[in-house]
Amino acid sequence: MRRYFRLPLLALAIAGGVPALAAKPADKPDAASNMAKAHDQDKQDDAEAGWIKPVVNEQASVTHHSATTHAGPMKYTATAGTLTIRDDDAKPIASVFYVAYTADDVKDYKRRPVTFFYNGGPGSSTLWLHMGSFAPDRVQTAGPESIKPAPYPFGPNPETLLDKSDLVFIDAIGTGYSRALGDKKDKDFWGVDQDADGFARAIMRYVTKNARWQSPKVIFGESYGTTRSGALSYLLQDRGMALNGVVILSSILNYGIRQPGYDQSYIAYLPSFAATAWYHHKLANPPADVATVVAQARQWAAGPYAQALAQGSALDPATRTQIAQQMSALTGLSPQFILDANLRVDLSRFQKELLRDQRLTLGRYDSRYTGIDTDAAGERPEYDASDTAISGAFIASFNDYVQRDLGYKTDMPYRVSAYGLDGFKWDWTHRAAGGNGRGSQSAPDVAVDISAAMRTNPYLHLLSLNGYYDMATPFFGTEYDLNHMGLEPAQASNVAFRYYPSGHMAYLNPDALRAMHRDLAAWYDEVVASAVSGKTSAPATISAGRATGNGPN
């Protein structure tokens, strides 16, 4: 900037207005000047090399590719770039990184959906969904086992959802390459409502920038991303963008039940414990399939188990013993261990106890995975085997792919997660949507927001995808939350459930991924058909309150 300030003064000197600055002998460059010049040269070199920095101006690297999909060969455009979101006064507040995959040669964009994907945490980037689920390329995962070190298996994904929708993967602010701008800090976006506001602005900016306001729109969240989706479903609608669909994978919608003293969390986990015990051959009389044991566990958990827990310390000894024995038959834990835990087995204890005789622990994100602790007598696992088994492959594959294939270069580090950063603290307060005195919540229950969105938008469809072996967000808890939204039958018919023999990241199981694509393809066809025809609900084949044909009733 000093160079540009000098130009007017030099012009005045030539005109005789002031003494010419050039008459003064030039100063020798000092160390600071040399450093400044070196910095300017580095910036110029970076620009010439194509390195992209987080600036107010939106940046993009656009590449062209082809993919083999269920609809046949497709040409598509990949855009890796940033969206600048602004506050209500048009002041830039954040640069949001995204990668979009859009089909080429689309004749009618009104019939071409666009789906926005994001992971959760809170504080996670969207690396996991991007590299593992429905993008045109993915990490090639197999059974529940650790992936070997590099080179990692990464390549074409025949289950990509490009055959049904354009795909946009977005990183939360403070994660990935997304960063706050101006006087804003990343931590200003770390909260339930702050985060939802940032995502709403990013999605609306993408839609505006790419002229997709008339396209059917879907949001797809995983884990805490489903909490975000709950808030977003109403927030976007309230700002003028009514959604066609919401897909929630491995959901946590109501954090209130996780507070100490509430028994609902123990009830929610029981069917997941039963599925896990069945998988690891810990049941004395196992049924033929996991769906059957889950159905049995659901019925018992919602009946005798819930009734026993509701009595608290007033439960008589005989019934207590009977409940412990019944729970043992479903979970593989000993009756004495269950009695010692007062019929309330915490997740970490179950992870450590079920396979203790084999000196193995269970994964949290996926209980099919097993780990080995240094101390087999410990109270809880020392690490999550289902996390460490795949993280290296996902992180390395993304860093290689984003530069080599997408051509996006930056000297910024890609933050897989903001969790653990200095100053990271999530604001859990939430201003819930709708009436009936919902108001401010200290622990978010965004099922309230989804309910409000579905009651005021009768065309909104909700699809819940669940893994039987997900111990982070148990599927029975999701069923409870969605079945307590207070919807009328017309709106409730737009809610569908699907289940898979996998964990939190259900797409890690290739068979589950194929089944998920099949279910999503049918759902997209009917949701888009509903949008075009104006029908208020989907046909009964997909909108049944529980899974039809691909899971238990």
Automatic annotation (TrEMBL):
Residues 1-22 form the signal peptide. It comes from the Bacteria. Residues 37-46 have a biased composition (Basic and acidic residues). SUPFAM superfamilies: alpha/beta-Hydrolases (SSF53474). Residues 25-46 are annotated as: Disordered. Pfam families: Peptidase_S10. Keywords: Signal. This is Peptidase S10. It comes from Sphingomonas abietis. The lineage of its organism: Bacteria, Pseudomonadati, Pseudomonadota, Alphaproteobacteria, Sphingomonadales.
